[in-house]
Design brief:
Low-confidence stretches: none
Distance between the termini: 85 Å
Mean pLDDT: 97
Number of strands: 62
Number of helices: 11
Radius of gyration: 31 Å
Shape: globular
């Protein structure tokens, strides 16, 4: 047999593939083929042996299915965001096209006689051909979509069948699978042999609706084989194709994911149904579910695991859903392909709205025809059949999931007639759901207007003008780019979403950092683009998630949780607390409210707070208990009340006591700083390395931070370097006793340039402490904005830090919503945030005091920002991975007057002026005390 490989560069979606159908939970016999397969990798199609009729696998390796061969020791992963790692000349692919052969022998059960035998692949990247017992069964592409082959005539019940799958890393399909992720190949989702008995339902469409005005539901179950539908809880027994109205049902929503169990019985077997009654509608420019406006507190989710890539387990999927629900996230965009169907079932049962996106992205072509007029595949009629088939496969597979409320055509493909054909297909198959596509920038045919990374001001303009974009509902399908330290400024978006009903939220980019766990130079790291020797890559742009690769929440995740929490708890201006219910359908009767009172971080009272049930959208003011009022009247400094809402009873996604929302109210008025009175000049010395006094060693003015991704990628850090901020030098202008203090005047300035910061350091010994009064004045042609402004000094290695201020996690000027005032303690290691690419981290804004193994520093008046590390800023900046950072015998403490915010400018709007540290005269006053 001579193998014909022309299919590798064929524009068609496949050959001998069965028509798309719904993913079903039925009682058909299945033979799972997950596990070990014989495996051989050839460097190219030409090098792949012509032996698929009967390959001798005695010398082959073994590989696990599901899995990717690059993560199993064959070849290497490669990451690109936009560009293709091969020339653009569709449908041709490189001769260097790694080709993997998989072989598995399985016994076909004897009792499958008379059944139709189907071989189903849930996902194979990128194109594959299947041989069964030496005969070609067919070929398919569409990596994140299922493919089924009828192999009834190729197998014999009671005998063994040999299945051979040839998988190609590159194919014509690769041109439409340019998603922002690792290029990984192989059979990465399950494979099953299925026995379909005569008379069994193979395609079912559950059509439901809910009338929010009278509480009635309607149900219609269509099936390719007639049968009877039973829903015992509703007392229903009806034929397929029969439309029925139920006078009273409980609707499905993300907050209350009510499902009814049903069964479809046909002559050939049973299909288990999970029925959620809900209606998706667009009314007066507002997207509604069951008559209620939806606000998407969403995330974009790629399928990823640091060891397994896109080959997720059911536990991985459950972990994601539980983390989302506990965080208050209510929606997922399946970027940029349909997820494993089990994930959607979890969204049905636990309650998450889903934008289900087709397996399509062609970003590397650009959005308009590129010279020499090479059209994007969405404009190219040769790709039309494949793209329409991809949409059909998406809609048919997933049409029965109530969690899916929007279909999406794909991502970042520009515009073309093929997209319009995909839209028409989706509306023809399922007119009940709206269709989304972000690059329809003028809203020509989509049902929802969508943008990426628009500023809050730009969102407000759309929200305020109903004449724009056909007055369609507006969402941000991507925003809040969570790369490295960030995203900042999320509260600004939430305020716009709350103000303008048409602005219906968005989806953070993205859920998880795609760092692959590997070893470099003997140390375990999370790898990103370039770490596997790629010549074309996009670096750590693959690490832009709310979760670190091990699914640990980042500070950005905690900030997002706070911004989107379903209750707003703030001071009511009358000595009590105002609580606003921002749920869609739930009141607050399922919550218990607790109240804690602290003075300077010390607990003085706690208990429960009686709060009446608050309806969605309503606000109530609640008086504080008498004990809290008394504590406030005492006038002690930093008296804070924390009110939290917790689950009264367990849910499928969290235990009782899980915190849903919280807010803090300060009861005292901040006192004016007390001027330093008396004292004498402190003893110290000033030299080349800095100022040493009162246990503080080598104190210097600090203006530089290790650039975060939001500094580096948009060129902000480059501009800072051009202004010399990364290499300032320090000159002692004068030192000596002056007006009762030891006064040191320094000038901090870069070489070559004509600007500087003149700092007057006044050190005074007062009682058992030393007070520093620092005054900084810029001079010359100084930069408009500084990364930071503060004092860095050295201490012998510090083990643990205790502080009173914001915490427990890092917080910056525009990421402080999740920062609660309190007293905290942590090791220096725990104060670090392990961003996959090391960068500025660990800052605690508004610190009142901090103690480091015997040295205490206390703010006099205005709080300072606190950072403690076991390495220098230079070491942090030059490290490629966290494993490069090795603690020494010195700790470096920075007391910041201020720092610039973090923003989202790596992929989003520039940092607003409000959050920039504008160069201007500044002061810092602190008291040092040694034990």
């Amino acid at each position: 047999m001579t193998q014909d490989h022309s299919y590798v560069e064929d524009f068609a979606p496949g050959a001998n593939v069965l028509p798309p159908r719904a993913w079903l939970d039925d009682d058909s016999a299945k033979l799972p083929l997950s596990g070990d397969w014989s495996f051989r990798l050839s460097p190219s199609v030409a090098d792949a042996p012509d032996d698929l009729k009967d390959p001798d696998t005695s010398g082959w390796d073994t590989i696990a299915v599901p899995g990717h061969w690059q993560l199993s020791g064959y070849g290497a992963p490669a990451y690109t965001n936009v560009v293709y790692p091969f020339p653009l000349e569709p449908p041709y692919v490189p001769t260097d096209n790694p080709t993997g052969d998989y072989v598995r022998t399985v016994a076909i059960p004897a009792d499958w006689a008379g059944a139709r035998v189907v071989l189903r692949f849930e996902g194979v990247d990128s194109r594959f051909a299947v041989h069964v017992n030496g005969e070609l069964a067919g070929w398919s592409s569409g990596s994140r979509l299922p493919s089924e082959f009828d192999v009834t005539d190729l197998v014999a019940p009671g005998k063994e069948a040999r299945i051979v799958v040839r998988v190609h890393q590159w194919s014509a399909g690769s041109y439409v699978e340019d998603q922002d992720m690792w290029w990984l190949s192989g059979i990465f989702r399950e494979v099953n042999l299925i026995a379909l008995r005569p008379g069994v339902a193979t395609d079912v469409f559950v059509k439901v609706a809910y009338d929010h005005l009278d509480g009635a539901g309607t149900l219609l179950v269509e099936s390719d084989v007639p049968g009877t539908v039973s829903v015992p809880e509703l007392g229903l027994e009806l034929a397929t194709g029969e439309h029925t109205r139920i006078e009273s049902v409980e609707p499905w929503s993300a907050e209350v994911p009510r499902l009814y169990d049903g069964v479809l019985r046909t002559e050939g077997g049973e299909v288990r149904l999970r029925i959620g009654f809900r209606t998706v509608a667009i009314v007066d420019g507002i997207l509604t579910v069951n008559g209620n406006r939806v606000l998407f507190n969403g995330v974009n989710r790629h399928e990823f695991h640091p060891d397994r890539g896109r080959a997720l387990t059911e536990q991985d999927m459950l972990d994601d859903v539980l983390l989302m629900k506990r965080a208050g996230i209510n929606a997922v965009r399946t970027s940029h392909y349909p997820p494993h169907p089990h994930f959607l079932s979890l969204c049905d049962s636990h309650g998450l709205y889903v934008i289900d996106e087709c397996d399509l992205e062609t970003h590397g072509f650009g959005y308009e025809p590129q010279p020499p007029k090479l059209p994007n595949p969405v404009m190219d009629p040769r790709f039309r059949d494949d793209l329409v088939a991809r949409m059909a496969r998406t809609v048919h597979r997933d049409k029965n999931h109530p969690s899916i409320i929007i279909w999406s055509l794909g991502n970042e493909c520009g515009m073309g007639e093929n997209l319009r054909a995909m839209y028409d297909l989706a509306k023809e198959v399922d007119p009940s759901r709206p269709v989304h596509y972000e690059r329809d920038t003028e809203a020509e045919f989509v049902d929802i207007y969508s943008r990426m990374y628009t500023s809050p001001e730009g969102c407000a303009e759309i929200g305020a003008d109903s004449s724009l974009y056909r007055n369609l509902p507006f969402i941000l399908c991507e925003y809040g780019h969570a790369m490295g330290n960030g995203p900042g400024g999320l509260l600004d978006y939430r305020e716009v979403f709350d103000k303008y009903p048409r602005c219906q939220g968005g989806f953070i980019w993205e859920w998880i950092d795609h760092g692959i766990r590997t070893t470099i130079d003997g140390r375990e790291v999370y790898a990103y683009g370039g770490d596997f020797g790629e010549t074309i890559h996009d670096g750590n742009f693959v690490c832009d998630g709310l979760l670190f690769p091990d699914r640990t929440p980042s500070p950005g995740m905690l900030e997002y949780v706070k911004v989107i929490e379903p209750l707003r708890i703030v001071a009511d201006g009358n000595g009590g607390v105002s609580i606003t219910n921002r749920y869609e359908v739930l009141d607050t009767s399922h919550l218990t409210f607790t109240i804690v009172t602290e003075v300077e971080g010390e607990l003085v009272g706690s208990g429960t707070l009686p709060v009446p049930a608050i309806a969605p959208g309503e606000t109530v003011s609640v008086e504080f208990p008498p004990g809290v009022i008394k504590a406030g009247d005492a006038g002690r400094p930093d008296t804070w009340v924390t009110v939290a809402a917790e689950l009264t009873s367990p849910t499928p996604w969290a235990d009782a006591g899980h915190r849903i929302a919280w807010g803090q109210v300060r009861l005292d008025e901040p006192a004016e700083p007390v001027a330093v009175v008396g004292g004498s000049p402190a003893d110290g010395e000033a030299g080349v390395a800095g100022i040493t006094v009162a246990g503080v060693k080598n104190a210097r003015l600090d203006v530089w931070r290790a650039p975060i991704d939001n500094d580096a990628i948009p060129g902000v850090a480059k501009a800072w370097r051009e202004q010399g901020l990364h290499r300032v030098q320090h000159r002692i202008v004068s030192q000596g006793e002056r007006d009762g203090a030891w006064e040191v005047v320094t000038r901090t300035a870069p070489p070559q340039l004509q600007w500087g910061l003149v700092s007057t350091w006044r050190w005074t010994a007062v009682d058992d402490a030393v007070v520093l009064e620092l005054n900084v004045v810029p001079e010359g042609l100084f930069p408009e904005v500084l990364p930071r402004l503060g004092v860095t000094f050295e201490l012998p290695k510090v083990e643990r830090v205790e502080w009173f201020g914001t915490g427990p996690n890092e917080a910056y000027a525009d990421t402080r919503e999740a920062a609660a005032v309190g007293k905290y303690s942590a090791t220096v290691a725990e104060l670090q945030t392990p961003y996959v690419r090391p960068q500025e981290n660990g800052h605690r804004i508004d610190t009142r005091w901090a103690a480091f193994d015997g040295l205490r520093v206390e703010a006099i008046g205005t709080p300072f920002g606190l950072t403690v590390r076991d390495w220098t800023t230079q070491a942090l900046e030059t490290a490629s991975h966290t494993a490069d950072l090795v603690p020494g015998e010195t700790s470096y403490i920075t007391l910041d007057i201020a720092q610039s915010g973090v923003g989202t400018a790596a992929c989003g709007p520039a940092l607003p002026d409000r959050d920039k540290l504008t160069t201007a005269p500044a002061t810092l006053a602190v008291r040092f005390t040694t034990a």
